[in-house]
Amino acid sequence: MTSYSRILIDFIKPLLNGRESEADFLLKAQSGMIAWNHVVTDEHNLPLEVELKQLYEQLTRSHPDSVANLNMLVIRKLMYFSGYHQFIIKVESRKKPEGSRTLYVESIEAEKFRKLLSN
Questions:
Q1: Which residues constitute the domain of residue 71?
Q2: Looking at the predicted structure, is the pLDDT value of residue 48 above 90?
Q3: How many domains does the chain have?
Q4: CA–CA separation, 49 vs 47, rounded Å?
Q5: For 11-27, what is each residue's pLDDT tens digit?
Q6: The pTM is what?
Q7: What does the pLDDT read at residue 62?
């Protein structure tokens, strides 16, 4: 089974400097999720354009400097992660039993997600 937590971290690596607070890391991961899902939605013609556009506008309004990062991530998804077609539905920071934090990601195959949307 593919770990989308690991894939998302690798995907957003150009945004990371290693000094992020937990909140900043999570914001970067969520930005990655938006860019990732934008590409998956487009590639699989998922009926989520309005919702993703609203998320994109919200993010760029609250963080205007993020537009270039989102565009870079879209290109990165197309170039380096084109073999992955899962739609990311959840990104959270979770505490491990020993106290450290981990990125938790839930994803679903794009076609299964389409069926859920149509029901």
A1: 4-118
A2: no
A3: 1
A4: 6
A5: 999 999 989 999 999 98
A6: 0.87
A7: 79
